[in-house]
Amino acid sequence: MASGVAAWLPFARAAAIGWMPVANMPMPIAPTEKNKRADELIVLNVSGRRFETWRNTLDRYPDTLLGSSEKEFFYNEETKEYFFDRDADVFRAVLNFYRTGKLHYPRSECITSYDEELSFFGIIPEIIGDCCYEEYKDRRRENQERLMDDDEDKKDAKLPNMTFRETMWRAFENPHTSTMALVFYYVTGFFIAISVLTNVVETVPCGATPNTKEVTCGDRYTVAFFCMDTACVLIFTVEYLMRLFAAPSRYRFMRSVMSIIDVVAILPYYIGLVMTDNEDVSGAFVTLRVFRVFRIFKFSRHSQGLRILGYTLKSCASELGFLLFSLTMAIIIFATVMFYAEKGSTSSKFTSIPASFWYTIVTMTTLGYGDMVPKTIAGKIFGSICSLSGVLVIALPVPVIVSNFSRIYHQNQRADKRRAQKMQKARLARIRISKTGSSNAFLHSKRNGLFSEALELTSSIEEEQQLSKNQSLLESQHHHLLHCLEKTTNHEFADELCYEQSYLEGALQSYPSQSPSLSSQEGMTGTCCTRHTKRNHAPLPNSSIPTCALSHTHPHHNLQELSTIHIQPLNTSRSSLNMRVDEPARLNCQSGTITTAIISIPTPPATTPESDAHPPPSGPALQNVVKVSAL
Amino acid sequence: MSSCRKRCKREMFKFAQYLYRLVTGTLHADSVEDELELSAVRHRPEGLEQLEALTRFNRKELQILYRGFKNECPSGVVNEDTFKDIYSQFFPQGDASTYAHFLFNAFDTDKDGSVSFEDFVMGLSILLRGSVQEKLNWAFNLYDINKDGYITKEEMLDIMKAIYDMMGKCTYPLLKDDTPRQHVEIFFQKMDKNKDGVVTIDEFIDCCQNDENIMRSMQLFDNVI
């Protein structure tokens, strides 16, 4: 329940009088405030700076250090104040959280010190208000990248006991790790250059003998060029095979872009070897030689810039697409217009609309070859409009592409996005957990409340007091209010699981129960949120424990057969709030004192329909700890 | 006909203006709109003494109430949306906005669209410190949506649905669609003595005073502050 809203609880309770005439059943008794004291000021001394606030302000968040009894550890008897040896500036933000319900991130603070203070005071950073959350996340990400950079420097360290294959792969991927790798890297680079050069020079005409026509160098020195080509292809083949051998996942390697380029670069040679001296296909063979130019792409292994250019083009696919589309539209429009404008003039080159396409493209890209020019006045007017608009249309998407390039060059964009998505989900999940914590707290305390009602009859007043004392007064009043609503409408609150079960109850047929231990659980069949179970458990020390996945034995239900209560022992309300999704659940050995008459069969969390009301790690962790004695 | 012509002329003038601006390149002038003065409506309540006289709270209680009130609404007045927000936070499982709407109307006695501290505290004074008669009066006022002195079945059904909405979806036993209607029937059977289809204030008060449960529950919240 949020902060200042606590101040409106008396109002909400008073307004509940509006339900009374409508209710048909008697209302539950209101919780009395034992030793009700007037609200007092408490002094918090943080490194010498004194903060004062009302006790009620701090009590709004009983799951944090200042709101719970944990602050008593810091109480100083002589000066009658609470002393914290922490940073006073960050404490301001912490205290404002209690006052206003919103947590802000002071921009001048270091992110790690802020995180430490938050974890000291037991506040989860996910509830930082939206105004400061972006800044917080940015700083956090920068920090993590800095840590990762430090890590990467260590990554290249040679691990002991690497197999030959792994060493080779590492040499291929990071050429600067060993001298051999560096030599190999430069040699292949050199040969790529040679190969490309050869392909180019092959076509240059050199040395015409006076009586024959000009021949290209390739035809003149056929043997030499052929030897050169063979050598290059041999080296490329060997390199490709070596990479294939060393790759940790050959299938993935074969699918990668670089390996496809490699294959395309060397294949024409082999195909040429196979199909020589066959006049019919020599035409196709010549075409294949074009693919040799792909060898130039092999340079992208050697050049970071080329790779980034490739990524840029891929990421700007939408802008490029827009450019292409708008150009096409403009071309068609202007070509049509020019064609009809020039139709009248004699000997016009604009013979058809497709023929005008060429003119339009040349004009819009401001090339202006001049092989086609409009002669009529209308044609000239439209021609000038065409060239002006061409400049505009092409200039528009270019800055976007440029900025993309620079962005990718400086940041690791895709990894960020992936991480951000995960973070967003995790943040929402944790906020949801803390919210459902309050409604689950009601359901759980209701069960305990019933238990305490039963206890009343057996007059074990001490236990009842112990139970109710640990629930803050605010919570007990809120629960009383919800209880009144239940009585008014004659329906009870149920958690999602019960709702789904009772919903499916009507749909499913009754299945015979399969577990032998069910027979011992007969007493628990029937109602959800059962009020009649006689559970013989010792009073739980902290009664506001959020009940996670609560499922009951139900002979008609085939989803879950046994009742599993994921009980988290002491301080769970705090720990569940602070539990990071990836942290192991903090359980202490107090769980041993819970002797509940339930068999807890570790159900993997994935099978429970209710997925996000309980922190996932509690599932596997609990398998070890909550041992239960069967009835 | 002449209005049509006038409008035509006005449109043409606007178009000519637009062309002019387009040609000369002036930016579209920032039309000075009368910006709705973001209600810097600040409300200062009456002094403590007056409030003490008007209500049955003592000084200390008024202080506590005001602090809480002002904390949540720094401007000193609560409008309907804020009210709904605050009230919804107490009922996380359901939708409390409809009932909050009715409550808001019940508290906003001067019908100015916002609940000031005086309204708030006077309402609370009736609810927490008033006599049973006054409380029942207040409840009747809440149910009587159009304030005509009669509670009809439709009004009661609206209120009932609003209350059941607060329970939300996950209830046990499952809420059926006609549960509110049935509840209204029970209510009318109990309250409507002369079976004329409406409940008047006298019938209501009479019936409630004869019902022990209701009498007892009225006293339930007497020690809330």
UniProtKB/TrEMBL annotation, chain A:
Keyword Membrane in annotation: yes
GO CC terms, sorted: dendritic spine; neuronal cell body; postsynaptic membrane; voltage-gated potassium channel complex
InterPro entries: BTB/POZ_dom, Ion_trans_dom, K_chnl_volt-dep_Kv, K_chnl_volt-dep_Kv4, K_chnl_volt-dep_Kv4.3, K_chnl_volt-dep_Kv4_C, Shal-type_N, SKP1/BTB/POZ_sf
GO molecular function, one term: metal ion binding
Signal peptide range in chain numbering: 1-16
GO biological process: action potential; potassium ion export across plasma membrane; protein homooligomerization
The reaction(s) this protein catalyses: K(+)(in) = K(+)(out)
PANTHER family, sorted: POTASSIUM VOLTAGE-GATED CHANNEL SUBFAMILY D MEMBER 3 (PTHR11537:SF182), VOLTAGE-GATED POTASSIUM CHANNEL (PTHR11537)
Name by which UniProt lists this protein: Potassium voltage-gated channel subfamily D member 3
Organism name: Salvelinus namaycush (Lake trout)
TrEMBL record, chain B:
One cellular component (GO) term of this entry: voltage-gated potassium channel complex
Family classification: Belongs to the recoverin family.
Topological category with respect to the lipid bilayer: Peripheral membrane protein
GO molecular function annotations of the record: calcium ion binding; potassium channel activity; potassium channel regulator activity
SUPFAM superfamilies per the UniProt record, alphabetical: EF-hand (SSF47473)
Annotated coiled-coil segments of the chain: none
BP-aspect Gene Ontology terms: regulation of potassium ion transmembrane transport
Organism: Hucho hucho
Name the record gives this protein: Kv channel-interacting protein 4
EF-hand domain sequence ranges: 95-130, 131-166, 179-214
Matching PROSITE patterns: EF_HAND_1 (PS00018), EF_HAND_2 (PS50222)
Keyword flag Glycosyltransferase: no
Keywords of this entry: Calcium, Cell membrane, Cytoplasm, Ion channel, Ion transport, Membrane, Metal-binding, Peroxisome, Phosphoprotein, Potassium, Potassium channel, Potassium transport, Repeat, Transport, Voltage-gated channel
CDD domains per UniProt: EFh
Listed Gene3D superfamilies: EF-hand (1.10.238.10)
Lineage of the organism: Eukaryota, Metazoa, Chordata, Craniata, Vertebrata
Primary localization: membrane
InterPro entries: EF-hand-dom_pair (IPR011992), EF_Hand_1_Ca_BS (IPR018247), EF_hand_dom (IPR002048), Recoverin (IPR028846)
Compartments where found: Cell membrane; Cytoplasm; Peroxisome
